[in-house]
Amino acid sequence: MTTLRGFWRNKTKVEPGTAVSPTLNTAETAVTAPPALTPIDLDIAPNDPLLAYIQHNPVVFDVAQLKLDSLAVTAMREAGVRLVVPLVSQGELIGLINLGQRMSDQEYSSDDHRLMSDLATQAAPALRIAQLVQQQKLEAIERERIAQELRVARLIQQTLLPQELPALAGWGVSAYYQPARAVGGDFYDFLYFPDGKVGFIVADVTDKGVPAALVMATTRTLLRAAAERLEAPGAVLARTNDVLVQEIPPKMFVTCFYALLDPATGHLRYANAGHDVPYHYTAQGVVELRATGMPLGLMPGMGYDEKETTLAPGDYVLLYSDGLVEAHNPARGMFGFPHLQALLATHADGATLHEFLLAELAAFTGPGWEQEDDVTLVTIQREEPINSQQLTINSQPVEFEIPSAPGNERTAMEWVAEVVGDLLPAARLEKLKTAVAEATMNAMEHGNQYDPDKPARLKVFVEEAPTSTGSVRVTITDQGGGQPSPAAVAPDLAAKLAGAQSPRGWGLFLIQAMVDEMHVHQDDQHYTIELVMHLANQKGA
Amino acid sequence: MAEKKAAFTAETKLEEETAVILMHGEINQDADAALTAVYAAAAQVQPTAITLDFGGVDYINSTGIALIVGLLAKSRAAHIPLTAVGLSDHYREIFTITRLSDFIEIQ
């Protein structure tokens, strides 16, 4: 059966006594102006008998002599069509040439029929090629439109994802996000509260592309707004759901896990809106963090169970999306929850967990796997307390990295204090903390230009000295090597007060004043400041 | 949404003819606008002295020191003596090392 396509529409109005384009004037070659043409709509329904007739008789025919109960034929007659020339290419009917009354008012002759038949033989392949070219152009435009939509969706997603990880003393947080080729709607977010608590969100919007990205943006905003007003995770999800349900397009919804962590205690309160159940790694085994609740945006007035747990030192929680657990291997087997849980039981280190899981995923799916959905992983690990006894003389340095961002120097300072513990008296520890904060701030600002991809690296170790009980040494390294080192000169306060100098410029002076020794080491790439506090030096204790 | 750390806040009150500036949080680069505004409000009542109350301050970095230097320059230009209260022993020492204590009475 011939498929009716858009090009069946004949936009030529046929007036009685005029020719339908293309005009075929077989009369004497009288030079006259072409007759005026006005458009008509002539649609041929796919089930019109005329199509079946032409399929079996693809030859020129006279409309007046056609005995066919056909709406198309009736319409042709009303439009003044006299002769129809089917255009057939490779057995497929691709168009019709409809001719009106000859300008001489004579009937079409058998010569005219032959001539039109020859014309159709020549014209049909050319028309077919033109149609294919047109079709390819339309497909190319459609492909570009889809690609552009994906670019927009990716841009929306990347703009909304956090630019930095929470830097929490005693905690390690890592995040991994890999969008699928057809962008899905995964997202994660971190919320910071004045009391020091941190909110963790992982969510997945149904659907893909721009619609999913827009729903993601809306959901993220609603969650943040709700979390600012309400503390309880269940209440946050309930509030978000009630607003989202009025905004979200039909047949779309959002799965979402929200947890509120108190870093001081390890206490974690959480609620779940139909999202994949997170896992809690403990020394006793891996447990699910189950809490029931409907996905967001489906129905108003939903309640959300709220549960709680506490992360002990060494524990971690993995939040993830279905892109991981629903990945398939060539045999169509699914990665699955039990497999994930079993893998976690073998891996205690949250810092290397993502690398480990992605390697396992690659091994499971095999080479050439096309990622089916976004893969999102967020891990929150409570670090083992660093016992100051570990900082024995000539022991391995304790190391720490911190993203270069304003304010992170305080995290570095607290971390060093925790590591050093009671190796220094309280007053001297305060001095070291101030020196560490200033040196870290310099490293992040001047060395790394606050580039979040360039962390400041800190090392703390105790070094034996031949003539004393040793020293606590802290090194802070940035990526600003190869530059001249500024000297620590005492700022001239009188000049600053008189406006002759900038009021700033206290950092290096303070560092030097706070510690027993300060050394600078640098190469072409790295700049390291070393702070030394002698253990035997009880001055200021 | 709150930032990672408690934001710096400052308010002023008048005790007899002394303007007391109560500060809370961290004195770092983020404290600049609030500190400038609260000092302007304190100076507007033409006090005979200004007291900086550091009782609620748990952290001052070198940028914060620079902000205090800026306040001190303004108060000296206006001939208003500046006093500091509520400083921890550690920050008292820093005020001494930086010589701020030569110009600000530490109580």
**Principal-axis shape of chain B:** globular
**Poorly predicted parts of chain B:** 1-5
Which strands sit side by side, in order, in the main sheet of chain A? 4-13-12-9-10
Note the main sheet of chain B.
Answer: 5 strands, mixed
Helical region count of chain B?
3
What oligomeric arrangement do these chains adopt?
heterodimer
Description of the molecule:
The complex is a heterodimer of chains A (541) and B (107). Chain A is an alpha+beta fold. Chain A has helices at 49-56, 71-78, 110-160, 209-229, 233-247, 322-325, 337-345, 353-365, 408-420, 426-447, 493-497, 507-514; strands spanning 61-62, 83-89, 92-99, 171-178, 185-192, 198-205, 254-262, 267-273, 279-282, 285-288, 307-310, 316-320, 375-382, 398-402, 456-465, 468-478, 517-522, 527-534. In chain A, the strands form 4 sheets. A 5-stranded antiparallel sheet of chain A has the order 4-13-12-9-10. A 5-stranded antiparallel sheet of chain A has the order 5-6-7-8-11. Chain A is elongated and about 120 Å long. Residues 1-31 of chain A have low confidence and may be disordered. In chain B, α1 runs parallel beside α2 (62-77). Chain B is globular and about 30 Å long. The model of chain B is unreliable at 1-5 (pLDDT under 50). By secondary structure, chain B is an alpha/beta fold. A 5-stranded mixed sheet of chain B has the order 1-2-3-4-5, covered by helices on one side. Helix content of chain B is 36%, strand content 33%. Classes of the chains: A alpha+beta (541), B alpha/beta (107). The A-B interface holds A 166-167, 191-194, 224, 227-228, 406-407, 409-410, 427, 430-431, 434, 437-438, 441, 491, 493, 496-499, 502-507, 509-510, 513, 540 and B 1-7, 26, 28-30, 59, 61-63, 65-67, 69-70, 72-73, 76, 89-90, 93-94, 97-100, 102-103.
